[in-house]
Structures are given as C-alpha cells and as structure tokens.
From TrEMBL:
The lineage of its organism: Bacteria, Bacillati, Actinomycetota, Actinomycetes, Pseudonocardiales. It comes from the Bacteria. Transmembrane segments: none annotated. This is DUF559 domain-containing protein. Residues 202-273 form the DUF559 domain. Pfam families: DUF559. InterPro entries: DUF559, Restrct_endonuc-II-like.
Amino acid sequence: MLTRPFLGSVAIARGLLTPGLLRGPRFRRLFPDVYVRSDVEVDLALLSEAAFVLTRGRGVLGGWSAAEVLGASCGPLGAPAEIVVPGRRRARPGLVVREEVLPDDEVVEVDGMLATIPLRAAFDLGRRPPLVEAVVAVDALARVGRFAPRDLVAFGYGHLGARGSRLLAAAVARADARSGSPMETRIRMALVDGGLPAPVLQHVVGPYELDLAHPDFLLAVEYDGRDHLTQERAMRDLARQAHLSRLGWDVLRSTAADVLLRPRSVAARVRSELVRRGAPAA
C-alpha cells in the first residue's frame, strides 16, 4: 500500500492517513504534497512518476523522464525528473519544469502517464550538452522508438528556431541505433573522441555478439555491468572468452568507473592493443 507516489492531501481526505503519520518517518516527501513510503527506493523512474502525480495528470513527462518511462533509460547519474506543462509552474529540487503546449501527436500514454514520444524526447535531449550524453540519448531512444537518428533532421523542420540545433546535428552524425546500451555508447564516444576509428557494433562471432569490435585486428571492447558480477553470468563469460580466444580474439573490458571517470584511459588501452596487433600507430 502507498508504495507508489501519491498526493498526501488525497490520502488524508480518504482517511488512509493522518497528517501526523504523513509527517512521520514512514513516509518520504518527494515534491510538495507528493509522498511515497520511506522504504521505497527513490530513482529517476519513481521521481518521474511523482512529477506526473504532482501535476494531477495534466503534465507530460519529457527529457530524461520520458526516456525512462519509454524503456530507454539512459539518464546520467543524478539526472532530474522533467515535466512539461502548458502553464507556469515552479521548478523544484530534483525536478525540471518546462512550459510548452505539446502537439497531440508528440505525446503518448505509458503505464497511465503521459510522455513525449521517443522522437520528441530524442529531439529535446539531443540538443542539450554535453555532446556525449546527447548521443547517448539519441542512440537509446532511436533503438526503442525504432527510428533512424537522421529522422531527427526532418523532425526538426517542424521546430525551426529551437535552441541547440547545431548540437543536435553533431549528435545525429555520431549516433547509431545499434548501440546496445548507454554505456556502450559512452565507450564508443570515448574511442572516437580519442582519435580511434569507429568500432563495429554488435559484431557477430559464432554464437556470440560483441558490443564493439575491430574485426580486422580481432579486438573487442565491452562494458562490464553489474549483471556480469553474478555467478551465472560469470560462467557464461568464461565460456564466451574461451571460444573467442580459440579464434584469436582478445576482449578489453571496461567498468562504469572506467567509462565515466577515465574515458581517455579507455581509449589509450584500446589504442595500445590495436597497435600491438598491427594497426598503424598514428
């Protein structure tokens, strides 16, 4: 009960809670009059739902919130919830409020909430710096929305004068909907920004698919996420590594800390291994 964001005033009016209980340790205040049980983990998905509750269903989730509920979770650490409203409403800590009347064909219902469609969410996020995160958003939303990144160019003709069009063009030029995850996109950007040739995405070797690969030099670059820490996944990784090694492949792995804090080091490792395998040093 009350494990999802709710309006405190409504809960009190219905006799579900008393004001004293609501102010106590059992509940957490997310936004004005919006609460959730204190034992519920607060993440972007929950904050996005809370933002929608705050507007009493009259707002539309946009930006990173739209990506989250659309199944394209790609927001950077600490990304705020975002809501689009037709009239003026104050921003709150952890919440971005945009004032705009959205066309009906740019809004979709997801799990009882309203959000911008993937194309519009990509158009919005692709115009926001930094470039790496703009590309991450376009990659993820293009994959979920099943559109080509270049479709954003045509979409932009309906929004002439929108700020950030140059950044969007740069993001579209670098985007690739084949990217399997936001971290894979960040690795790809680290390599390209480091002066390396763009890797092949989702390269197939026998029964396996490599995140990023340089097939000419039998070198793969992969992201090790939390799921790789499970025993079952570790066993599958060992079998996979043995198969690739028999074929002459080597795999360089990067963690979230590597990708987010040391992207240049990731590129340097790949460059060094490529040179060792015969690639030009320059």
